[in-house]
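quick one before i forget lol
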Amino acid sequence: MPLSPDERKQRLNEVARLISSTLDLATLLQNVAPLAAELVGAEAGALSLVTPDGHALIHHHLFNLPEALSQPSVPKEQGVAWGVIETGQPVLLADYAAHSEALPDWVEAGVHALICVPVAAGEVRLGALDLCMLDPAKRFGQRDLRLATTTGQQVGVAIQNARLFEAEQRRRQEAETLRDASAALTTALDLNQVLDMILTHLERVIPYDSACVFLAQETRLRAVAGRGFPSLEQVIGQDFPVGDSLIQEIERTHHPLILADAQADPRFRRWGGADYSRGWLGVPLIVRGNIIGYLTIDSRRVAAYGQAEAALAQAFANQAAVTIENARLFEAERKRVAILTTLHQTGLDLSAQLDLPTLLRIIVERAAALLEAPMGDLYLMQPADPTQGKPGEPILELAVSHNLPRQYLDVHLRMGEGLSGRVAETGEPLIVDDYRTWSGRAAVFEDTPIRSLLGVAVRWQGRTLGVINVADDRPGRFGPADAAWLALFADQIVVALENVRLVEALQASKEHYRALIENSADGILLLDPAGTITYTSPASFHILGYSDQEFPGRTLFELVHPEDLQEVRNFFRELLQTPGQTTPAQYRLRHKDGTWRWLEGAVRNALAEPAVQAVVVNFRDITERKRLEEQFLQVQKMEAIGRLAGGVAHDFNNLLTVITGYADFLLDRHPSDLDPSRQDIEQIKKTAERAASLTRQLLAFSRRQVLQPEILDLNALVADMDKLLRRLIGEDIELVTLPQPDLGLVRADPGQLEQVILNLAVNARDAMPNGGKLTIETANVYLDETYTRQHVDVKPGFHVMLAMSDTGQGMDGETRSHIFEPFFTTKEQGKGTGLGLATVHGIVNQSGGHIWVYSEPGQGTTFKIYLPRVEASSKPARPGRLLSPVVHGSETILLVEDEESVRDLAYFILLEKGYRVLPARHGAEAIQIGEQQTGPIHLLLTDVVMPGGMSGRELAERLKRLRPGLKVLYMSGYTDNAIVHHGVLEPGTAFLQKPFAPDTLARKVRETLDG
C-alpha cells in the first residue's frame, strides 16, 4: 500500500537522521537499502559500491534479494548500475528484463521494475542504489525516482563521511598496530621467532586467511614461514619461481601488487592448497633498496585488498624487512661465531686424537653440528675392488655415520654414483635441495627419508681422500655459504686425518719391523763402541743359546773363537772408523753348550744414526752349511778324480782287451804245462788281469762302470759269502752275522756288492793284525728329513742297512775325512793301492745308496751302507751264475769298433767261431755296409763310445730302421749314459764289459743271438 505524503516525508526524515547520526560505515551500509525501499514502496533493493581499483562493482547489503547476488563482482561496462555511475543520471525501468544491460542473475531473481540512482559525494562516484519491484503488477513513478535520487545523494555524503572517519580511525589503529608490531619485532633476533611474530602482527594489521613469507636465498626464492594453509608441509621449504610474472612485476616496480580476484587472474600460481584465494596481495620486503623477499597475503573475499591495504602492508613490510635482515645478520654472525668456535674446538680435539675410529666419529658429529644438521657421514676412498666399479677404479666406502638411516650403512659407491660419487669424481661441492626428486640419487637410496644433502670433497695435496656429507629431513636446508663452511671444515680435518694415518703407518711400521725382528730366523745384536752387547733379538737365543738376561753386559769378543779373535778385533776397529758402512763377516762364536758355531752376516756402523746409535750385527748360523759345503767339495774332488780315472780306465781297457785276448790265443797254442813258453804267457795274462782289476776299481770309485742290477736279498748274499769271508779274514778273527728277519729287498748289481763286502772285510782284517771280531748286520731302517738334510747324497725314505763293524785300531778324525779318496792309504808303501774304500764308495753311490763311517782311535770302526728298499714282483736272484758253454755259429755279424787292435781281435775271435764278420771303423761306415749288404745281418756288435759324432746307441737305432730284426750287443769300457742311466744298464740291453776274454765274447754273442 503506497505511503501518504506525510508518511513519505517522515521516512525521508528518518533516512536523513540515520545518515547524519552514525559514522559507522557498516551500520550505514546495512540500513540504507531497506529504508530507501520502504521510502518508495519498493519490494527489494541493493547498495552496490565500486571496488577500490575502480574495475568492478560489488553488490553489498542486499534487501529481499538472493544472497548469491552479492558474490560475483560486476565487471566495468556491464549492467545498468555502471551506466548510472558513469553518467550520474538516475534510471527508471518499468520492464527490467527487456533492458539491454539487464543482468541475467537479477532477471532470474525476479526483478521486474528497477530504479537505479547514483551514490556520490560531490564528484566522487561511489556506487549505485538499486530499488526493485518483484510483482509485475506494481510500478514506480517519477516521484519515487526523485525520492530515490535525493536518498542516493544523502547516502553518498554519509558513506564518504563514514569512510573518512573510518579511514582516520584505521590510520590511527594502523599506526598503533604498526608501532606495537615494530616494538615487538625489535625484541627478537632469532629468525624463526621473527618470522612467526611477523605473521602474527600482520594479521592484526591486515586480516588474512593465509599468508606466507618468501626470502631470497642466492638464486632462489624460498618459502620460509606460513600460516593459514591447509598443509604447511606443502609450503615451507618450497621454491617460488623467480621468473614468475607476478614476482617480476613486483621486482620491476618495487611496489605491492593487488589481485581483486586471484582465481580469475591467469598469472596466479595455485599452490599450498590455497585454491580458496580470491583477494591477493603481494608485498616486497625491501632493505636499502634491495628486495630480500616477499609477503603474500590471501583472502577468501573478492577485492579484499585495495590501495590502502597495500600501503599499510608495505609499511609493515618495511619494518618486517629490517627486522628480518637484522635477524639474518645476527643469525649469520651467530652462525659464523659458532662455526669458528666449532672449527677451533674441532682443531684442538682432532690434534689430540690419534685413534682413527674415534677421530672419524668426532669429524662427522662436528660437521653435523657445524651446520645444525641432524645427520652426517664420511666416505673414504678405498683401492679398486674387482667386484665393484670399473677395473682399477677406486670405490667409496662408508667409514662412519651420524644418525644415518639404516639403508645408508654398509654401502659402497662407485665413482660418479650418487652425490658422494659425483663429489669424489669432480672434487666440487654439491648441494641437493630434495634428494627424493633428484635424478642423480643412487639406486640404493630410492626410499631415503633424507631431503637436503650437502657433500664436500676431502682432499690432500691434490688427491681426493673421501667425501664428507651433512643431511636433513627437510628440503632446501643448505646453500652455497654452508658449502663454503663445510669446505673449510674439510680442509681442517684432512690434516688431522693425514696425521693419524701417518701415526698409524708409523706404528704399523714399528710393529712390522718388530715382528720381522722377533720372527726373523736371523739373529740381531746391537753393540756399543766398546763391543758390549746392548740388545739381542729372539733368534739370537735359538742360534747361540744365551737368554735375554745372559747377553747384555757381555762383549762380543768373549764369544769369538780364539783363532778368529784378533781378526775380529781388527775388523771391529776398522768398522768404527767408517760410519754408515755395512760390511759382510764370517766368524766362529761359542754356543752356550760349548760348541763352536759358524756365523755369517752383515755388520753396520749406525752409531751416528739417532734412531739406532749402535753397531748393528745381523747374523745367521751357517754351521750346517759349512759342513755340507765340505761334503760337497769332497764330492766335487771325487768327481774330478773320477773323471780322470775313468778316462784312463777306458784306454786301459782297450789295451787290456787286446793283451788278454792274444794271451788266450797263445795259451791255446801251447797247451802243455811242460812248455816253458806257457808259464811266460800265463804271467802275461795274470799281469793283464791284475791291471784289469785295477781299472775296474778306477771305474767303480769314479762311478763309470756299467751295473747290471737285480732284485737282491742282502741276507742271502751275505750267507753265500760266509765261507769266502772266513777264508779271507783268517782264523784269528771271529765272524758274526746278525741278519734281520723279513729283511727288505734292494736293487743292485750282485757282483759289485760282493766286491764292496770283500773290500770292507779286507780293510777290517788289516785293522786287526792281532785278531778280533768282524760283525756283519742287516736291518730295515727309515731315514728321515733331519738325517737327509745333514747328508747331501741321501733321499728320505725306507732303506736296507748293511753294517760291518770291527774291533780294530780305529781312526782319528783326520783319517776319516780322507778314507774314501782314491789312492789314500794308511798302509805301508807297496802294501795297498788306496782304491779299496774309494771303490766301495763309488759302487754304493752308483747303486743309489749312501755309506757312513764311525770310528775312534782304539774303538774300532763301523761302516753302514744304506740302499733304497724296493718292492719286487719276482723272487730275488741268487748270487753266482753258471757259465753257458762256448758254442760256434754261422750268422753274419756287423762289427763296429774304432780301436783297430780291438776290432782285429774281435774279428779274429768271431771268425774262429764260424761267424761271418763285416768290420767297420765307425758309425758312418757301418751305415754304408748296412745299406749295401744284400744278405742278412743277424747281429750288430758295436762299441758304445766312438769318434765321429755317432754313438753306438744312435747307430743301432738307425740300422734297426733299415733292418727291423737286427739284434744288438754293446761293448764298452765305461758308461757315458748312451745305453745306461746313472750307470745302470737299461732293461733288455745286451752288454759286454771290456776287457773281455775270447770265450766271454763268443759266449755273449751266442746268448744275444739266441735271446
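fyi Residues 564 and 587 are 7 Å apart (CA to CA).
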